[in-house]
Write a structure and sequence with these properties.
Blueprint: H1 2-16, H2 23-27, E1 60-70, H3 79-95, E2 102-111, H4 115-128, E3 133-135, H5 141-150, E4 155-157, H6 163-167, E5 171-173, H7 177-191, E6 196-202, H8 205-221, E7 225-231, H9 239-246, E8 252-256, H10 259-272, E9 278-280, H11 287-298, E10 301-305, H12 314-326, H13 338-352, H14 363-372, E11 376-377, E12 385-386, E13 401-402, E14 406-413, E15 416-417, E16 421-424
Parallel strand pairs: 1-2, 1-3, 3-4, 4-5, 5-13, 6-7, 6-8, 8-9, 9-10
Antiparallel strand pairs: 10-14, 11-12, 14-15, 14-16
Helix pairs in contact: 1-8, 3-12, 3-13, 4-5, 7-8, 9-10, 10-11, 13-14
Length: 431
């Protein structure tokens, strides 16, 4: 019986991969600079540059690495994510010997949120003969990945968001994206003993399809009922939606929206006296949201992230030191900013763990090195590791390699985030 139930869950997840492209919008807080993690922003922490270690500059021939990120467009523009990736590369060149002694030469190209920019970036990377493409946050992955796959160039990212990314065997991820977010929230709900959870999400056919084919089966597998109440895009007063969501007296809410949608829901909850915990992504704790709704609105918010950039552990300190040293103009270093950093530093660590990297760095040698990566420190991982020798996320028909299945979770008391704990998203699929 249990095996049949797990099999149904896996089939549901596989069937819904085709609609997981909405993950980019939800995990990135849609477009724009929703890159603050509220009052616990890493800019408020003292930075100790000694954690950078001893210098070991790269002296070998340069190796070209593509950097693809949402920047330069009118609707989508988050250059700070790419700046985080470049900062990690600069740190590697000065302190880690680059890639096996080779200096990393960044070939940066902006995803402007349209097919034309994606095509231009694909051509730029192919013509430059990059050894890999490291991704910050893409908006048009489905337009560029087929070209990258055709050229057999490795695609390295912190978090998958598009169907083509899941389907490319040459893609590697250091987190599990929107699929993992849903799974980790289901596991967390079970751990808390919650029996009913309601999601308030942006009114979107893709989101509805994903919830029906993935979200509800995952939560049901954890013994939790998941309901859904749509919130029309641009809603300023979410009172009717919050009223509908709380009628069944759920133990908690999930909010899947951009910053404006989160603000509308938080404000309505305060007005209506709804006090349920609310599981969110980083868009909901963007500084403008925190400023607008205050302590009452943010209290009991449970934030899910792919890493912990604000803690006192060594990896968080290293992140802040690297950003201070190599990207000092980036004012807010929380939220989605760390995605590029995590992609680049994870990539560097995976390659430098293989002694063969000291030779020619090509798409072929990059792929081989990444497949050997095992038990390496996860950037901002608070002691967690990543392994790419086998996928850590057990959905058989996902062809990409997911090197880490953990999500980092913190609960706000007022506007202050508590310590981070880890939740294993893959537990939702294990029999």
């Amino acid at each position: 019986m249990v095996r049949r139930q797990r099999l149904r869950q896996r089939r549901a997840a596989v069937a819904a991969v085709a609609v997981l492209g909405l993950g980019a919008a939800l995990l990135a807080g849609c477009s724009g600079n929703n890159d603050s993690d509220g009052s616990s922003s890493s800019t408020s922490k003292a930075v100790d540059l000694s954690v950078l270690g001893d210098k070991k500059p790269a002296t070998g021939a340069p190796v070209k690495i593509g950097l693809f990120n949402i920047e330069g467009g009118t609707a989508v523009d988050s250059p700070e994510i790419g700046d985080g990736a470049r900062a990690a590369a600069d740190y590697a060149n000065e302190y880690l010997g680059g890639l096996g002694g080779h200096k990393i030469e960044i070939v940066r190209c902006g995803d402007k949120g349209d097919g034309a920019s994606a095509a231009a970036c694909a051509n730029k990377f192919v013509q430059a003969r990059v050894a890999a493409v490291v991704v910050g946050q893409p908006a048009t992955a489905d337009q560029i990945v087929p070209v990258i796959q055709g050229a057999k160039i490795p695609w390295i990212s912190a978090s998958p968001s598009a169907p083509t990314e899941f389907a490319y065997p040459g893609a590697t991820f250091f987190s599990s994206g929107f699929l993992g977010l849903l799974a980790s929230q289901a596991v967390y709900a079970k751990q808390k003993g919650w029996k009913r959870v309601t999601m308030l999400g942006t009114e979107n056919p893709q989101l509805v399809a994903t919830l029906n084919s993935i979200g509800k089966p995952l939560f049901k597998g954890q013994g939790v009922t998941l309901d859904f109440v749509p919130v029309p895009h641009g809603t300023a007063d979410a009172g009717p939606q919050v009223t509908a969501a709380t009628q069944s007296k759920p133990d908690a809410l999930v909010i899947a929206a951009d910053a404006a949608g989160c603000q509308a829901v938080f404000s309505a909850m305060t007005t209506l006296g709804a006090t349920q915990p609310k599981m969110v992504n980083n868009a909901c704790v963007a500084q403008p949201v925190v400023d607008a709704v205050g302590e009452a609105g943010i209290d009991k918010t449970v934030l899910f992230m792919s890493g912990d950039p604000v803690g006192d552990h060594e990896e968080a300190q290293l992140y802040r030191a690297i950003m201070q040293q190599y990207a000092p103009d980036v004012e807010e270093t929380g939220g989605i900013t760390p995605l590029g950093y995590q992609s680049m530093l994870g990539f560097v660590r995976a390659l430098n763990a293989d002694s063969a990297t000291s030779g020619d760095v090509t798409p072929e040698t990059v792929t081989a090195a990444i497949k050997k990566a095992k038990n390496l420190p996860l950037p901002m991982g608070n002691g967690e590791t990543f392994s790419c020798d086998v996928t850590q996320f057990p959905v058989p028909t996902i062809k990409a390699t997911i090197c880490n299945s953990k999500y980092f979770v913190t609960t706000y008391s007022g506007t202050k985030a508590g310590p981070y704990e880890t939740v294993d998203a893959a537990a939702a699929f294990r029999g």
